[in-house]
């Protein structure tokens, strides 16, 4: 026995082909569709209550970490103003160090006489060392006596007679070929007379060498100030307390300031050497 499958003619619904359902089965399909269980998503949506939603009306207030960023222009224990740890363009400490180095350099250079002769200022900074005393603890000659220049001689008046012997030893040990005379006229035992030697080619050469040494000292001081500022910039970069562009800008400014200070010191030293050699 051969069973043939009934082929239903296609029917067009909303522009699509579908199989036509016989009229006998239509009531059955309508009852099934009416009693079918609703989808799961619909039941979940009906079970979840409506939640009121609101948007942010203001941003959250952000605060800086004081341990990471620190305070601006904080004061040290001594009451001095510390360098700003978050501003790489704050170079006040560097400028102060450079100004102090140049001030000390000019003061020491001013104590040298272009003619090669000894000046009272050069004698006042010499240290008078007593037996058993270290050089760093010894007082300066200007603290123990008064030095007066009279023509080609220096007249030294000691405050204490016990220091006369140590002062005489100091003057004899210098490289200026000094010959001190203690109380030459027997009027004051605290009086020392020193003849100033005339200027020679050797004395002028010695002055040039001393000026060159002072130039090297100020260059080392400028280099040290630059290194200290670079350490502060590196700390800002490692701690992420400033932007890299600002740090690079501060480093460029640091290089410009130190370069200008080196050029100024070199110019002053060369001009002083020319004056000494042209005497």
UniProtKB/TrEMBL annotation:
<dbReference type="GO" id="GO:0043023">
    <property type="term" value="F:ribosomal large subunit binding"/>
</dbReference>
<dbReference type="GO" id="GO:0005739">
    <property type="term" value="C:mitochondrion"/>
</dbReference>
<dbReference type="GO" id="GO:0006412">
    <property type="term" value="P:translation"/>
</dbReference>
<feature type="domain" description="Ribosome recycling factor">
    <location>
        <begin position="106"/>
        <end position="276"/>
    </location>
</feature>
<dbReference type="InterPro" id="IPR002661">
    <property type="entry name" value="Ribosome_recyc_fac"/>
</dbReference>
<protein>
    <recommendedName>
        <fullName>Ribosome recycling factor domain-containing protein</fullName>
    </recommendedName>
</protein>
<dbReference type="InterPro" id="IPR036191">
    <property type="entry name" value="RRF_sf"/>
</dbReference>
<keyword id="KW-0648">Protein biosynthesis</keyword>
<comment type="similarity">
    <text>Belongs to the RRF family.</text>
</comment>
<dbReference type="InterPro" id="IPR023584">
    <property type="entry name" value="Ribosome_recyc_fac_dom"/>
</dbReference>
<dbReference type="Pfam" id="PF01765">
    <property type="entry name" value="RRF"/>
</dbReference>
<comment type="function">
    <text>Necessary for protein synthesis in mitochondria. Functions as a ribosome recycling factor in mitochondria.</text>
</comment>
